[in-house]
Amino acid sequence: MKPLIRILALSVLLLPLPAPAYAAKAGNLDSAGTNVFDRASLQRGASLYVQYCMGCHSMQFQRFQRLVDDLDLSEELVQEFLIPGDLEITDYMMSSMPYEESVEWFGKAPPDLSLKSRSRGPDWIYTFLRGYYLTEDGWNNIVLENPAMPHVLWDLQGIQRAVTETVTDSDGNETTRVVGLQLERPGRLSPTEFDRVVRDITAFMQYVGEPAKLKRQRVGVWVLLFLSLFTFLAFLLYREYWKDVKK
Q1: Which residue has the higher pLDDT, 114 or 23?
Q2: CA angle 45, 47, 48 (to 5 degrees)
Q3: Is the domain of 234 the same as that of 112?
Q4: Is the domain of 49 the same as that of 145?
């Protein structure tokens, strides 16, 4: 029995770490503070995603119908405000951007974002969307240097500039690095309001990465109640079977 327990314990230790643990090693990321069980946040995030992201990025594993089932939205509301063009509520959330032209415009086709939150983690997405700054050569980002994606939320956030410092290594070589960002021109939203916008988009992307999580928690409560009841009944049965043996 003990060797079996050791094998099971070792197998648990060797399981791969979740994506956010790997993402955190890439640098100092801001905490997204998302809550995928906040329906209002997910509803706002869905609307913002369709408005600012879906023009380029598809979600090939997410149907519009799922928004009705999971986010407490009516079919009429989804059809009127969240479904662009001639798409139907049973269709997947696919961008209308043509593939060949997108490669020409951006250097590569915009990636599908269905599983981005699982591969990068919500903190990475949150920091990335807030981390754009303007240079003489165009937009750059503190998380992903020289991104092909422009700052689509700049009118909401405003224009940030990088705060840099020059570091000299032991060989006398000087390098300049970004140590912070400073808001040069305010956008249509205050920094607090913009942070909420980014958090809502991040929460929606986190939900799309694992939609079953919403239902799994509700089912999990009943499973725990069943296991508790079963454990209690098993204990009573154990006492009944062994009361005469122990004597």
Answers
A1: 114
A2: 65
A3: no
A4: yes
Distance CA 65, CA 60 (A): 13
The domain that holds 103 is classified in CATH as: 1.10.760.10
Asked if 163 and 235 sit in the same domain, the reply is no
Phi and psi of 15, rounded to 5°? -65, 145
- Do 228 and 123 lie in one domain? The reply is no
Q: Give the pLDDT band of residue 247 (cuts 50, 70, 90).
A: low
The pLDDT value given to residue 131: 96
The answer as to whether 2 is a domain residue is no
* SS3 state at 186: strand
* DSSP β-bridge partners for residue 164: 178
Cβ atoms of residues 35 and 217 within 8 Å: no
C-alpha to C-alpha distances, 218 to 49, 117, 196, 214, 231, nearest whole angstrom:
26, 22, 26, 7, 21
Print the domain residue range for 235: 219-247
